[in-house]
Specification:
Strand content: 15-25%
Number of domains: 2
Number of strands: 12
Distance between the termini: 47 Å
CATH superfamily of the largest domain: SPOUT methyltransferase, trefoil knot domain
Shape: elongated
CATH architecture of the largest domain: 3-Layer(aba) Sandwich
Largest sheet: 7 strands, parallel
Strand order of the largest sheet: 8-7-6-11-9-12-10
Structural class: alpha/beta
Length: 259
């Protein structure tokens, strides 16, 4: 164990930058995960390397927290509660966070398997929820266009609840070039004259699902180029669903058909 008492410490400064700056996370290839459950998921997955554990001294009597710390093979850092609150992104932190390597794809991007594509989904909560639903419904790959919230930002990681340690995640992908190369079915979630009721489609075999921006939907050029559109029927003149809810409904229909 190492004790740090000042926010001027280089490691503390690094953690603060990682929580706030996309460009710095991208530059160093690291991110911050926070909370007992996320750290536990990272330790169990063996898919990400944990560089540092940071513990709030005031929470060091928490048995669940300390069990994780003791299971960690590396050196861990203890800080006063005031310092921990400075580096935490939570209103009520539980006293544990970790610096981890960003999990990079192990192979070049190919449009295969059950693939979720996000077109300019800006809300971190929506991105994280979609990642979590993708992992839970058996989608193995998620592709994010420029304009999406950064997958490894604190809010997205928190909403993903461990999905990052399971999925193959590709960011900053030009969707038009990516989608045109695919040989498997592509379904765009869009209400148009061409769209079909998602319940009437065969979604049990590998396909690519595209979910669009919360306000403007899917890029019109993609809608024009890819003719297969699906929709979710709704009642009471509701125009649309939240992007994360819509994507989750469709992915779990695919899982239902497979099961």
């Amino acid at each position: 164990m190492k004790i740090i008492t000042s926010t001027d410490n280089p490691l503390i400064r690094q953690i603060m930058r990682l929580t706030k700056e996309f460009s710095y996370r991208e530059e160093v290839g690291q991110a911050v995960i926070e909370g007992i459950h996320l750290v536990e998921a990272a330790l169990k997955s063996n898919q990400v390397k944990i560089h540092t554990l940071v513990v709030d001294k005031e929470k060091s009597t928490n048995q669940e927290l300390m069990a994780l710390v003791n299971a960690y093979q590396g050196e861990w850092i203890e800080v006063p509660q005031g310092v921990f609150k400075k580096i935490s992104t939570l209103t009520s932190p539980d006293g544990l966070l970790a610096v981890v390597d960003i999990k990079l794809p192990v192979s070049p991007l190919k449009n295969s398997g059950f693939c979720l594509v996000l077109d300019s989904i800006q809300d971190p909560g929506n991105v994280g929820t979609l990642l979590r639903s993708a992992a839970a419904s058996g989608f193995n790959k998620v592709v994010l266009s420029p304009g999406c919230a950064h997958a490894w930002s604190p809010k997205v990681i928190r909403a993903g609840m461990g999905a990052h340690f399971i999925l193959e995640i590709h960011e900053q992908v030009a969707l038009s070039a990516f989608l045109v190369e695919t040989e498997q079915p592509i379904w765009l979630a869009a209400l148009s004259v061409k769209s079909k009721d998602y319940r009437q489609l065969n979604l049990s075999s590998a396909f690519t699902l595209v979910i669009g921006n919360e306000g403007s939907g899917i890029d019109p050029s993609l809608l024009d180029h890819h003719p297969h559109h699906l929709n979710i029927p709704m009642m009471n003149k509701v125009e649309s669903l939240n992007a994360a809810i819509a994507g989750s409904i469709i992915m779990f229909e695919s899982l239902r058909q497979r099961l």
